[in-house]
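hey
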């Protein structure tokens, strides 16, 4: 079963959208296997955004992500990575489709509410960065047979 890392960024937490965002993933039928509220350290933020370290916006990303708590999550399900990306919407909320999280609630690229892994390799790396094995719970939702053949 595929897993992905999702983070509700500080703007999503500050705007009180945590429940709404979690609701969308639950309604889609994915299983929550890890969840925590985190005050991110600079070290963790820099490791998370390591791929952007040479870009001019790197310091701004790090400063923003450590500015307030975020909600870190791991979701599980068939095709969860691709499906989560569709639920999240385009990086720029101004071009994100209505019905997506960013399309419905986002205001600007720098305040786009949510992060989601973009590939299986990225998901694996991000999950290991944000969660220990002991913080993840493997379980099967009783409604699974109603979602997957």
């Amino acid at each position: 079963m595929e897993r992905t890392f999702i983070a509700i960024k500080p703007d999503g937490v500050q705007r009180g959208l945590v429940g709404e965002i979690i609701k969308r993933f639950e309604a889609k039928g994915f299983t929550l296997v890890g969840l925590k509220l985190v005050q991110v350290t600079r070290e963790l933020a820099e490791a998370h955004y390591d791929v952007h370290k040479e870009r001019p916006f790197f310091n701004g990303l790090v400063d923003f992500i450590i500015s307030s708590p975020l909600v870190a999550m791991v979701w599980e399900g068939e095709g969860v990575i691709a499906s989560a990306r569709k639920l999240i919407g385009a990086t720029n909320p101004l071009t994100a489709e209505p019905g997506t999280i960013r399309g419905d609630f986002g205001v600007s690229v720098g305040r786009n509410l949510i992060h989601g892994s973009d590939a299986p390799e990225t998901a694996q790396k991000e999950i290991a960065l944000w969660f220990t094995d002991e913080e993840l719970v493997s379980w099967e939702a009783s409604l699974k047979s109603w979602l997957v053949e």
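Residues 18-28 form the longest helix (11 residues). Strands lie at 3-8, 31-38, 70-76, 114-116.
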